[in-house]
Specification:
The protein has 223 residues and is mainly α. It has one domain. The chain has 8 helices and 2 strands, in the order αααααααββα. The chain has a two-stranded antiparallel sheet. α2 runs antiparallel to α6, α2 packs antiparallel against α8 and α7 packs antiparallel against α8. The radius of gyration is 20 Å and the shape is globular. The protein starts with a helix and ends in a 20-residue tail after the last helix.
């Protein structure tokens, strides 16, 4: 009877929905919160991708036959598809940097968003699901938040030889400034910073903060 009661307790406490799965028994509350955060990150990145392609339609036309939907399916896979030949098999920070190279002729939105997604993905130990024995690293999560800030700075400042930005984001229509991109980036940064604090509180390890400077290099993400 005791064993049965314990089973019922764990089942009721670990299930994220009305449909319980045995694997949920191997999850902690932190694991569940981490997965929810990553799901929110993916939702925000998909919205960002759609907005950027609509703002920069020329990028989508650089590879024949691609649509916004096909690009979303190509970028947001879990586990990550690292066989991106058009990016020279680069991911994470390397893919972001490729997308901002002046001589790059490919789809800059695909390169930078794929790089941003895979960089954040690495901060979650490159896993689709987290279980009891999976320990996230608070420094990786913190660094990923700072890298998003660096990404924002680059997308606002990296220009072609003619002075045009590589990737267009905000514009001013009359006196009304479109701040939707800032809101998305702000939410992404907040999600990563929040997870960093949650994990730091769990592990008792302090986060090494960095001085944020315009033009600084991306911070490493390792595990």
């Amino acid at each position: 009877m005791v064993v049965m009661a314990l089973c019922i307790f764990f089942i009721s406490g670990c299930s994220k929905s009305s449909e319980f799965q045995i694997k949920d028994l191997a999850k902690t509350n932190i694991d569940t919160i981490s997965e929810i955060h990553m799901d929110q990150v993916v939702t925000l990145l998909k919205t960002l991708t759609q907005k950027l392609y609509k703002k920069n339609p020329i990028e989508l036309q650089k590879v024949h036959g691609q649509t916004i939907e096909s690009r979303l399916n190509q970028i947001f896979t879990c586990p990550v598809d690292k066989n991106q030949e058009e990016l020279d098999y680069k991911d994470g920070i390397d893919a972001i940097l490729l997308g901002f190279e002046p001589e790059y002729k490919g789809d800059r939105i695909f390169a930078t968003i794929y790089g941003l997604y895979t960089m954040i993905y690495k901060s979650y130990n490159s896993k689709c699901e987290l279980f009891v024995l999976d320990y996230l690293n608070e420094q990786n999560l913190y660094n990923s938040a700072r890298n998003i800030e660096i990404f924002v700075w680059r997308i606002k400042t990296r220009q072609k030889e003619n002075g045009e930005l590589f990737i267009l984001t905000n514009s001013i229509d009359g006196e009304i400034k479109n701040l939707s991109y800032e809101r998305i980036f702000g939410k992404l940064i907040s999600l990563q910073d929040t997870m960093a604090l949650i994990i730091s509180n769990r592990t008792g390890r302090l986060i090494t903060e960095v001085v944020r400077m315009a033009g600084m290099a991306f911070l490493p993400i390792g595990f």
